[in-house]
Amino acid sequence: MTQEARIQNPATLLPEAVKAINLLYRAAHSAGVPGTTLELVHLRASQINGCSACVDSGARASRKAGETEERLFAVAAWRETPYFTEAERAALALSEAATRLADRSDPVPDAIWAEAARHFGEQELAALVLWIATTNFFNRINATTRQPAPQHWG
């Protein structure tokens, strides 16, 4: 059952917030991490948080960037599928850990961080962390204000 949004998305109601969000987006997307990897971590965090608007936009953006249906359908079960590279797996593991902070006493264990660092340089890691945090930011706004996924017909 979908519920109506409580208010318009707060990020669109406050023009200064839109500017800041655009700066975060540009910073995260300019550090050399493949766009498909950023889209995958966005989608996975949004799935974990149950953010329908971000799951919808993430899947659509991934598809537009050339992602296959097979891989998109498998993101939630990425560990059990052969569809993802080692670097993508490291990014997905980092996304899950950074999203589920309260699930364990050491939210992002050294092994997860080390595996990500094996595949990404310092600036790329910074971009991944920033993008995961930004995704969680959007997820929390959308869940709090009940922003729905748009209805697509046809």
Task: Give an account of the 3D structure.
- There is one protein chain.
- The protein is mainly α and 154 residues long.
- The chain has one domain: Up-down Bundle (AhpD-like).
- The protein contains 8 helices and no strands.
- The protein has helices at residues 10-13, 15-28, 35-49, 52-64, 69-74, 86-99, 110-119, 122-145.
- Helix 3 packs parallel to helix 6.
- The radius of gyration is 15 Å and the shape is globular.
Write the layout of secondary structure elements.
Elements: H1 10-13, H2 15-28, H3 35-49, H4 52-64, H5 69-74, H6 86-99, H7 110-119, H8 122-145
Helix pairs in contact: 2-8, 3-4, 3-6, 3-8, 6-7, 6-8
InterPro entries: AhpD-like, AhpD_core, CMD-like
Protein name: Carboxymuconolactone decarboxylase family protein
Domain Carboxymuconolactone decarboxylase-like: 15-96
Give a brief outline of the structure.
By secondary structure, the chain is an all-alpha fold. It has one domain (11-145): AhpD-like. It has eight helices and no strands.
What does the overall shape look like?
A: globular
User: Which homologous superfamily in CATH is the superfamily?
Assistant: AhpD-like
The helix-strand sequence is: HHHHHHHH
Low-confidence spans: pLDDT under 50, at least 5 residues? none
What's the story with the biggest beta sheet? none
CATH topology: AhpD-like
The end-to-end distance, rounded to whole angstroms, is 21 Å
Helical content band: 55-70%
Number of helical regions: 8
Average of the residue pLDDT scores: 92
Q: Which class in CATH terms?
A: Mainly Alpha
Whole-angstrom Rg: 15 Å
Give me the CATH architecture, please: Up-down Bundle
Which structural class fits the helix and strand makeup?
mainly alpha
**Count of folded domains:** 1
Proportion of residues in extended strands: under 5%
Number of strands: 0
